[in-house]
Design a protein that fits this description.
The chain is built from 1 helix and 11 strands; from the N terminus they run E-E-E-E-E-E-H-E-E-E-E-E. By secondary structure, it is an all-beta fold. The two termini are 51 Å apart.
């Protein structure tokens, strides 16, 4: 299956540049496979473009795939009456992010014409003049922030499906995070361009345990959840601190 999508959404309020339509263009495809009600697979791919980047940097390819094994449907599980459902899952994907803050078109220079400050020299020599103020230097090499995601999980139901357990372990590596250059001296009255250089790793787990018990006249259930996540900055452009911590 392939899907074509075009987004021309507009901001409800803001400056004149914010009121311009947001333009995104994307193609998506999906392929699914299932065999013998035991083995499952799915492949997805997206080809997306964003106006936030300069020509030649606007489009990115983002694939993802997942695998599943319904172990409880195997022949060797038929004699294990305590387990009513057991499924193993794994997925891997690459995603892109073009939401780079409140500013738009950061690949363009932001120059503004302003009235010159009143001074005796300007008044007598130049007359009523204006000047160009350079607020932001554009970076035509800006591109998508990329994240590589992994997830490994298990779904388990036991005791006539009264007891359910779902567990997931996930890993994420982000790169090309839009960041400021803090190790370079800034230019007077000019903001240095943002660049894709940040790196962050994230990993953790999620666990959910539930008990669902039907009685004669009513049913009750209890669910408990726990999750853990840890982020680590792998690289950011900063001046080395005096202390290693």
């Amino acid at each position: 299956m392939f899907v074509f999508q075009k987004d021309n959404s507009e901001a409800a309020s803001g400056t004149s540049i914010d009121l311009l339509p947001y333009n995104r263009l994307g193609f998506a495809g999906r392929l699914t496979y299932r065999y013998a009600d035991r083995y499952m697979g799915e492949f997805n791919i997206g080809y997306n473009g964003s106006e936030q980047f300069a020509k030649g940097k606007r489009f990115g390819v983002f694939p993802a795939f997942s695998l599943g094994w319904l172990v409880s449907n195997e022949d060797f599980m038929k004699d294990i009456k305590a387990i009513s459902n057991l499924k193993l899952r794994a997925s891997f994907g690459k995603v892109g992010n073009d939401k780079i803050g409140n500013q738009r078109f950061l690949y363009l220079d932001n120059n503004t014409i302003v009235n010159r400050p009143p001074t005796i020299f300007y008044d007598t020599v130049l007359g009523n003049a204006q000047m160009v103020q350079e607020k932001l230097i554009g970076n035509p090499d800006l591109t998508w922030e990329i994240a590589y995601k992994q997830n490994y999980g298990i779904d388990l139901k036991m005791l006539d499906s009264r007891l359910s357990i779902t567990a997931d372990i996930f890993y994420e590596k982000r790169k090309d995070i839009l960041s400021k250059r803090n190790t370079l001296p800034s230019i007077t009255a000019v903001n240095l361009p943002l660049v894709n250089l940040g790196k962050v790793d994230n990993h953790g787990y999620e666990l959910s345990v539930g008990w669902n018990h039907p009685l004669k006249d009513f049913r009750y259930w209890v669910t408990a959840n726990i999750s853990y996540a840890k982020n680590k900055i792998i690289y950011m452009d900063e001046v080395p601190p005096n202390e290693p911590y």
